[in-house]
Amino acid sequence: MTADSPGFLTARPYADLTPEIILSAAEAVGLQPTGGFQALNSYENRVFKLETETTPWAIKFYRPGRWSDAAIREEHAFTQALVDDEIPAVAPYCYENETLFCQEGYRFALFPWHPGRTGGLETVAERVAFGHYLGRLHLAGQGRFTNRLTLDTQTFIEPAIATLRDCPFLPPDLRGPFVAVAERLRDAIAQILASVNPAVFRLHGDCHPGNVLFDGEHFAIVDFDDCLNGPAIQDIWMLLPGDRAEQEEALAAIIRGYEMFRSFNYSELRLIEPLRALRLLHYNAWIARRWNDPAFPLIFPWFSEDRHFRELVSLLYAQEEQLLLPPIQISS
């Protein structure tokens, strides 16, 4: 199933997900919920902190129609392999040799609750330490997923252009300029990817600070829901803060830790701005595809405004210019 399969367009996918279903789902797999649960910030799926008589859990209800069972199980197997290698991922709860369950038509999984604040990549020491884990994660990730997406323009940009071109919120006078700049970006990104020709293997895929928990001593890498096949830099560039100087400093620390376990291909630095442009298009198309889910107009009210799309086109022009500049550099 791809990012643009019809399942993505399901209206009101969680309308029937009641507290009774949430609690009965936990009971069905051998847990003893106390009745207490808290909705967490999750837009794609629905995730709750669930209190039980022994310890809290995170229970995730997968968006209907998004991933196949095989794709979800591939994610689960990957995270379990990482945990087995003592890499700080969070593997799903296994009950009777199964990690993917179904309750009242909703597929779900449970994960051990990990406290901690998001981010935690503020000092050189923290960045080096996290670089260790990324290097080890990528060593473990050699090989490819067979049921998940691959990061390329055909999968992520072509469908995004089509979705946004037909979005009713895109002002008619911007449709031509949007399509023109988006297609130029698509072609430029494809050309840069081909010229760099990076190794492609199993990644977290959405490794931004919000998916890194830190308790002051230990990291936990969470939410492998978007794990995919891609180049190593995809799991690094979203962690870089601030302006170019700050990004160079953070990148140098992360790569220093990374290379203690795995060599980094420095030519992939050329991919940072192309991948930023790809994400900008894909992210906006994702919101457009989800607009029939009542949660999305509440979370992203600005998306339906004329001003947003005018700013988006301006950002695409700026990103096009970024592709012409020399890439960020650090010493190898």
Fold topology:
Elements: H1 19-28, E1 33-39, E2 46-52, E3 57-61, H2 69-84, E4 101-103, E5 106-112, E6 117-118, H3 124-140, H4 153-156, H5 158-165, H6 172-196, E7 201-203, E8 212-214, E9 219-221, E10 228-230, H7 244-258, H8 272-289, H9 295-299, H10 306-322
Antiparallel strand pairs: 1-2, 2-3, 3-5, 4-5, 6-8, 7-10, 8-9
Helix pairs in contact: 3-7, 5-8, 6-8, 6-10, 8-10
Describe this structure in words.
This protein has a five-stranded antiparallel sheet with strand order 1-2-3-5-4, with helices on one face. A hairpin with a 2-residue loop joins strand 4 and strand 5 (106-112). The chain has two domains: 14-113, Phosphorylase Kinase, domain 1; 124-322, Transferase(Phosphotransferase), domain 1. Helix 3 crosses helix 7. The longest helix is centred in the middle third of the chain and has 25 residues, at 172-196. The two termini are 39 Å apart. The protein has helices at 19-28, 69-84, 124-140, 153-156, 158-165, 172-196, 244-258, 272-289, 295-299, 306-322, and strands at 33-39, 46-52, 57-61, 101-103, 106-112, 117-118, 201-203, 212-214, 219-221, 228-230. With 332 residues, it is of the alpha+beta class. It is globular, with a radius of gyration of 20 Å.
